[in-house]
Amino acid sequence: xxxxxxxxxxxxxxxxxxxxxxxxxxxxxxxxxxxxxxxxxxxxxxxxxxxxxxxxxxxxxxxxxxxxxxxxxxxxxxxxxxxxxxxxxxxxxxxxxxxxxxxxxxxxxxxxxxxxxxxxxxxxxxxxxxxxxxxxxxxxxxxxxxxxxxxxxxxxxxxxxxxxxxxxxxxxxxxxxxxxxxxxxxxxxxxxxxxxxxxxxxxxxxxxxxxxxxxxxxxxxxxxxxxxxxxxxxxxxxxxxxxxxxxxxxxxxxxxxxxxxxxxxxxxxxxxxxxxxxxxxxxxxxxxxxxxxxxxxxxxxxx
Length: 303
What we know:
Helix content: over 70%
Strand content: under 5%
Distance between the termini: 7 Å
Radius of gyration: 24 Å
Structural class: mainly alpha
Number of helices: 12
Mean pLDDT: 78
Order of helices and strands: HHHHHHHHHHHH
């Protein structure tokens, strides 16, 4: 177990280095720069700014200097605002994390419940209704759904206020982010439950007179959770990291909107810091998922 964890941690470090290399060199390969604006500074001022932020050096040297600062815990400053990036990303990540965790919890709970109901009522009316809506939700992108919810429930019906920092309302953003993964978990749970219910140990438990509730929750659902966990770990990270479009639609000042703003402004330190942070989050989620396997099913061997 310890050897496996160490191997995965080393692999994670290598992956982050590769992500940083690709992001850094691709970012610098795009024409233009952070100081090429409509009201650009004079050539003399631009040269001073580039020297201050090491942008006058070769790209390879810039990368080594940047990674050296990262290892010291220095994320740098924004080229546009001059603020410390660590102070900027922290509060914004809390907003994105709160939104993403709520959406993930809603998706998992409703997905497991609806998937179990569909499996226990195979080819009956509840199963057909659930499969119809889950198929519909998997075909609608989150940004389209977010726009429709905003127009209908905020603008037309005015059931929910438009999101603001003073009066945050997470209902519509959570629904926008949760419906697709909920639909996927529902279908995955149904398939896994049907497979578990057809196993010999379930038949044996029923033959021994074990109560139906215990058969479903202790035997069938527990074994059906493993494929779901495989999806849930990366799903949580992807919801947090992939909510940038939904955040922009609802004007939520989270990490996603900060990343989009960094790209639009060619704010290189913001782009790099956000990419590395989100990449580390995704890799950590995958590692935690693999370790949870062992808790759910002790028979699994991690090598």
